[in-house]
Amino acid sequence: MVPAKEVMVGIDMGGTSLRALVVNAQNEILAIEKQPTNVAQKPEGLIRDMAAMADDVVRAAGLRKSQLRAVSIGAPGAVDPEHGVVYHAPNLGWEEVHLGAKLRKLLRVPVFVENDVNVGVAGEHALGAGRGAQELVGIFVGTGIGGGIISRGELYLGMRGAAAEVGHMIVQVDGPLCGCGNHGCIEALASRTAMERDVRAAIRAGQKSCVLQLMQERGKDRMTSSIIQRAIKRNDPVMRKVMKRAQYFLGMAVASVVNLLDPDCVVMGGGIAERLGEFFVAPIRKTAYENFLRRHDAERVKIVPGTLGDNAGPLGAVVLARKRMEK
Ligand SMILES: [Zn+2]
Known about the structure:
This protein is of the alpha/beta class. The chain has helices spanning 43-60, 99-107, 116-127, 187-190, 192-204, 211-217, 225-233, 237-261, 271-276, 278-290, 312-326; strands spanning 7-13, 17-23, 29-36, 68-75, 78-80, 85-89, 94-97, 111-115, 136-141, 145-151, 154-155, 265-269, 302-305. 40% of the residues lie in helices and 22% in strands.
């Protein structure tokens, strides 16, 4: 039996899906709900969807609403956690939405709002691959590349909460154009979007690849992590070559981050790292180790795939909310 006011709900607000989970005081998952994100509707509609999801997931765990202590959300884009405001979330079409206050009105429990990458990193740090690390960097490779830094056990946010934009470190001057407007960011060289661009270019140039056929078979118009995994399993030469190049750039980025921050652990997260695990991370680690300034004890820096998958975000949201409530 779960005592009153002990359970917490964590929600990850992705551009394509919403994921909610409910945990007990030990952060053990009691139930999970998932649904597509309807971004076509106004913010109020999406906020109502999340309120309904929080109710549903509590019920799915066989609990009562009165047992819910708080809800914590990982939201994409520029977020002000102090005031629960999402300032700018291009994937959702949101500008200055008072998410925390609006959701609190509907649910009548405290609501916390954090940045989606920070919650993922906090989750892996507290409960996943980065457990026990004092100084940790999380790098999440997906549509873009997101990053988060834990320093002395706490999230490092910088002056305006804008720190840890690992994806926009420039690793190739005059390289390909990035979504941010600069050229040669690691995101423009090694994200899933960049890999898809390179695979399509190779196919256009006449190289043989099964990727487009796999996408058609699976009804996907984008090269998702599952398509990448299938192409790698089939030993697709174009996919392998493109991934190898992305891994090289990621290895260089990890080396630079480690030389700058001296962490004890780097967690590689996101769909590709989760699906391919060590296969994806090993070449990144090798390149990184070769480019550390402190090569003689390189192995002291762990470079590992994330272990929580899609639960890293909602679990991290709960972990950060607990810290805020303790303050
Ligand atoms: Zn950029």
